[in-house]
């Protein structure tokens, strides 16, 4: 069973199991596979190629003759580091136009680790981790002229499986684009480039210019993007796994990630997907694995599942008109092709769910790549296997298919665009099938680079740019003129004033690609008057290409044009531009100018945060003094609030900080503000700066039973972060106050005190289920308290069931012999992870039969879930969010459940490994590090987020294990395992008895 592109699942606690229609032992035979496919009326699928002619088809592209080049990836999942391999590059040709290849040529049969392909500029470009390679074939005889040339190197191979770099495609601007996955943390550059001069990247989109030899990160973020394409207006879209599936990509953008931090540590927040829907039901991405043949109806109706691969914006001339500018992507778990409509709005695009286009009706169908062809058809590669990406042990290397889908009878095309004169290639820029447009444009670029462009070709393109009113045709002419080097500052100046925002946006990008002073001046003048949010996003992106004063001026113009009510993605684009501009200056006058130009509060907030957080502690005081002076000068609360918020976020890792100059007077003024958030944020900073009045106010509010419970909880959290000396004596009496005893028991962990354990245990019987979980977490964080907790377990005053496996593992990590001994006698032994996962899986596979699960007590199962799972996982809208939402999680796949429960640490990225942090006063904080700065660590535990200043940290140990512990089933009785699994398999929430404790709320 082979697993291919999806994204890592490292926190799954358990998945439901019920009877499941299993995948067939073999795929539908190749000869019958196309007939099994269902499509809308009028469409027809043919098997263009299948095994044995093609196997493992991971990528494909077309050449100027309309032949299909296919990469057969035999390497996956065991990438080789020795440069050897048996991956093939095939050329498949349909000489009679019947939709079935009848000629097969092997171009390359010893490729290592191949995962992407494009042809052009005299050869074949291949993703061959860790390298981007070029195989020359300048004479076009379909045979390599020599050994592969390493163009770029440095893509991560050690930590990468299905997150490999991929999806090569020529962009409208003549660059070669590609995608990269989240675990492929790479340093890319030409061979021999020092690390300091390489480009750092992980997930996102990159590009390489074949003529100028330039490489850059175009936009970062998402999870495992595995497909990209452009629409009629040259707008770039990528498809992705796990989180949202569709993204409109703007240069310089930073998109939402599944986990971890962006390669630029100062982006602070991420842009969101353009899709207004998910392709799986219930909001739980893991459950989508059961949506194929015989799978969940909810997921099937929504689109089939979370895993997507391949992207093709349909721009051909064979499908009905309503399909143009639809994006097609392969839905791996749904065994189908999804279709999204791309609809423009003021600021960009919205991806709307259209009816799914293709159903393979084959449980082995695993679509990977999709592309438009010369006859206007759609080509789809089928990896043909079961499962997806996380079982790296088995792979079926014997099969694979490529399908062609057309509407009616397509027009057949034969010929070779590379043999046409320039004039014909120029005319093809207005062809109805964009396949011809793209191929012709690349040939013109190749001829220009070789000095073989005909004399009047540029003039013809200029006339086309100026002479057409059709926006699509104008854009195509602009791109072609640009790639042949014919765009002038004068023409760009005219285009920057064009009434259509697509034209203006592209004029900005072309004018700044290789900046020329007259064009840059025109860009600055145009942006000063620009009102389109769409164009402003691109202006923000291209400002990052400009250096010095020009870049700062353009960023400030963009910032000023973004209004306080503009949508967040635009505001973030503006911030990314401002951040790069701020990085190029250390003059307070420039800082002031950017703060004064920030009309959107998000930008002002991030400016303040960046100014403080981006410098060493030795330089921080001067910047804080500057911001306090700014607060005193502006007086307007709407301008003060973002600055206060930014300072607070920048200092979040500190327990205390010196009071800036002038803060006392400014705080006195801010504390009388009529805006509650201004007062609360100013107070929080005053506490950080050691203001006695603010501390006294907080203590009084925390103890005041008549005060708002939320305000009291916030006060308790601030006091705990400050670790005030009298915190235990303040909070211990609050353990009997139902309004705040949860925050109180969590905060008590911050400061050691001899009486804390006894006071918590005395109040324990009155606690809710969530509060008991908090109490166990607090008491398990220090050796003396852990002994008191385990003694209470031994005596029966605390139920053994209240101590989760996670809590027990944390107590064992205290490395205290007395605690370990008491844990063994009072709670039980945590057995080391068994090396024989196969035997364990066989045991539970035989036990958890459908008949046995029918006898389960699902109410007890829910209660077990609350104790063991709910602090990390949400289900049916309740629970924590440290791990994935399990609302529909894997309800029909016992194998996947066993894989994750029995070996949860088998595939776990560094970002999700448990880290144990010991503090100088003897506390152990165990969880996932979500932020690591010079000032301190932010740790997500199962019940809270803990910020630990460096000064308070004695030692840090990162384990190799997931936050989900091994041995969950071992910690339960067999009937409890049955109950838990049966509960997780229910389609709807199970009601609790009226007397049962409520489930753990999300924090």
From TrEMBL:
GO MF annotations, alphabetized: electron transfer activity; heme binding; metal ion binding
Keyword Nucleus included in the entry's annotation: no
Entry's transmembrane regions: none
Gene3D superfamilies on file: Cytochrome c-like domain, TolB, C-terminal domain
Domain Cytochrome c: 856-988
InterPro entries: 6-blade_b-propeller_TolB-like, Cyt_c-like_dom, Cyt_c-like_dom_sf, DUF7133, Haem-bd_dom_put, Membrane-bound_put_N, Quinoprot_gluc/sorb_DH_b-prop
Signal peptide residue numbers: 1-19
Top-rank taxon, per record: Bacteria
UniProt keyword terms in alphabetical order: Heme, Iron, Metal-binding, Signal
Official protein name in the record: Cytochrome c
Lineage of producing organism: Bacteria, Pseudomonadati, Planctomycetota, Planctomycetia, Gemmatales
């Amino acid at each position: 069973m082979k697993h291919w592109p999806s994204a890592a699942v490292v926190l799954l606690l358990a998945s439901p199991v019920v009877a499941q229609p299993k995948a067939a032992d073999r795929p539908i035979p190749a000869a019958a596979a196309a007939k099994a496919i269902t499509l809308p009326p009028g469409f027809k699928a043919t098997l263009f190629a299948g095994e044995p002619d093609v196997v493992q088809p991971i990528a494909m592209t077309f050449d100027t003759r309309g032949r299909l080049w296919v990469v057969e990836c035999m390497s996956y999942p065991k990438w080789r580091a020795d440069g050897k391999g048996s991956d093939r590059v095939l050329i498949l040709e349909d000489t009679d136009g019947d939709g079935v290849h009848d000629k097969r040529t092997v171009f390359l049969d010893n490729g290592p680790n191949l995962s992407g392909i494009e042809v052009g500029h005299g050869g074949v470009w291949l993703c061959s981790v860790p390298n981007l390679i070029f195989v020359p074939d300048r004479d076009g005889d379909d045979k390599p002229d020599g050994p592969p040339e390493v163009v770029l190197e440095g893509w991560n191979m050690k930590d990468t499986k299905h997150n490999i770099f991929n999806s090569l495609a020529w962009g409208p601007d003549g660059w070669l684009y590609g995608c990269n996955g989240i675990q492929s943390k790479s340093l890319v550059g030409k061979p021999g480039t020092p690390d300091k001069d390489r480009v750092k990247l992980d997930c996102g989109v990159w590009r390489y210019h074949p003529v100028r030899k330039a490489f850059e990160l175009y936009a970062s973020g998402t999870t495992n993007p595995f497909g990209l394409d452009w629409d009629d207006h040259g707008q770039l879209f990528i498809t992705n796994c796990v989180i949202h599936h569709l993204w409109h990509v703007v240069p310089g953008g930073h998109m939402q990630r599944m986990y971890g931090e962006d390669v630029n540590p100062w982006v602070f927040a991420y842009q969101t997907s353009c899709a207004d829907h998910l392709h799986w039901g219930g909001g739980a991405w893991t459950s989508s694995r059961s949506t194929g043949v015989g799978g969940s109806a909810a997921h099937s109706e929504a689109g089939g599942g979370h895993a997507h691969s391949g992207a093709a914006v349909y721009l051909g001339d064979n499908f009905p008109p309503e399909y143009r500018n639809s994006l097609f992507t392969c839905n791996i778990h749904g065994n189908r092709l999804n279709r999204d409509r791309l609809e423009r709005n003021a600021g960009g695009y919205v991806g709307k769910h259209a009816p799914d286009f293709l159903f393979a009706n084959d449980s082995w169908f695993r679509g990977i790549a999709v592309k438009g062809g010369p006859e206007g058809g759609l080509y789809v590669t089928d990896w043909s296997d079961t499962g997806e990406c996380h079982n790296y042990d088995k792979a079926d290397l014997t099969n694979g298919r490529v399908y062609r889908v057309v509407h009616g009878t397509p027009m057949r095309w034969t010929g070779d665009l590379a043999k046409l004169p320039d004039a014909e290639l120029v005319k093809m820029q207005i062809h109805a099938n964009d396949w011809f447009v793209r191929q012709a444009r690349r040939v013109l670029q190749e001829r220009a680079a070789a000095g073989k462009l005909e004399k009047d070709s540029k003039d013809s393109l200029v006339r086309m740019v100026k002479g057409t009113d059709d926006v699509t045709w104008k854009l195509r002419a602009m791109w072609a003129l640009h790639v042949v080097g014919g765009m002038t500052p004068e023409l760009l100046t005219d285009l920057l004033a064009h009434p259509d925002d697509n034209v203006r946006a592209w004029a900005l990008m072309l004018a700044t690609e290789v900046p020329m002073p007259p064009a840059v001046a025109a860009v600055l003048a145009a942006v000063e008057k620009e009102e389109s949010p769409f164009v402003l996003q691109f202006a923000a992106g291209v400002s990052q290409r400009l250096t010095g004063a020009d870049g700062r001026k353009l960023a400030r113009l963009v910032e000023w044009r973004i209004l306080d009510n503009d949508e967040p993605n635009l505001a973030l684009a503006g911030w990314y531009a401002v951040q790069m501009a701020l990085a190029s200056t250390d003059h307070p006058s420039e800082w002031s100018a950017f703060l004064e130009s920030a009309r959107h509060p998000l930008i002002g907030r991030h400016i303040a945060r960046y100014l403080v957080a981006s410098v060493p502690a030795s330089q921080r005081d001067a910047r804080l003094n500057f911001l306090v002076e700014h607060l005193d000068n502006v007086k307007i609360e709407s301008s003060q609030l973002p600055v206060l918020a930014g300072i607070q976020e920048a200092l979040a890792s500190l327990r205390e900080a010196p009071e800036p100059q002038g803060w006392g007077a400014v705080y006195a003024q801010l504390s009388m503000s009529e805006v509650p958030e201004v007062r609360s944020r100013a107070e929080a900073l005053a506490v950080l700066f050691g203001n006695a009045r603010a501390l006294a106010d907080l203590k009084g509010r925390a103890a005041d039973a008549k005060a708002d419970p939320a305000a009291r909880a916030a006060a308790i959290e601030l006091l705990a972060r400050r670790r005030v000396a009298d915190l235990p004596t303040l909070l211990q009496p609050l353990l009997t106050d139902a309004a705040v005893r949860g925050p109180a028991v969590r905060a008590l962990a911050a400061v050691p005190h001899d009486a804390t354990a006894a006071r918590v245990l005395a109040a324990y019987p009155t606690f809710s289920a969530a509060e008991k979980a908090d109490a166990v977490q607090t008491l398990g964080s220090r050796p003396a308290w852990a002994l008191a907790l385990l003694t209470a377990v031994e005596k029966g005053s605390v139920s053994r069931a209240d101590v989760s496996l996670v809590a027990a593992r944390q107590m064992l990590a205290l490395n205290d012999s007395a605690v370990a001994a008491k844990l063994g006698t009072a709670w039980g032994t945590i057995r080391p992870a068994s090396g024989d996962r196969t035997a364990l899986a066989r045991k539970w596979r035989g036990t958890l039969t459908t008949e046995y699960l029918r006898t389960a007590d699902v109410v007890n199962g829910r209660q077990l879930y609350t104790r063991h799972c709910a602090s990390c996982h949400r289900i049916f809208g309740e629970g924590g969010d440290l791990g994935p939402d399990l609302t529909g999680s894997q309800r029909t796949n016992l194998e996947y459940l066993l894989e994750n429960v029995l070996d949860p640490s088998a595939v776990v990225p560094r970002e999700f490994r448990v880290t144990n942090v010991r503090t100088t006063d003897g506390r152990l904080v165990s969880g996932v590090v979500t932020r690591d700065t010079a000032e301190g660590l932010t740790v997500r535990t199962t019940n809270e987020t803990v910020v630990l200043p460096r000064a308070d940290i004695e030692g840090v140990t990162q384990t190799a294990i997931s936050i989900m512990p091994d041995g969950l089933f071992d910690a339960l009785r067999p009937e409890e395992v049955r109950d838990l699994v049966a509960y997780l398999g229910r389609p709807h929430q199970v009601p609790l008895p009226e007397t049962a404790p409520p489930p753990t709320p999300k924090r």
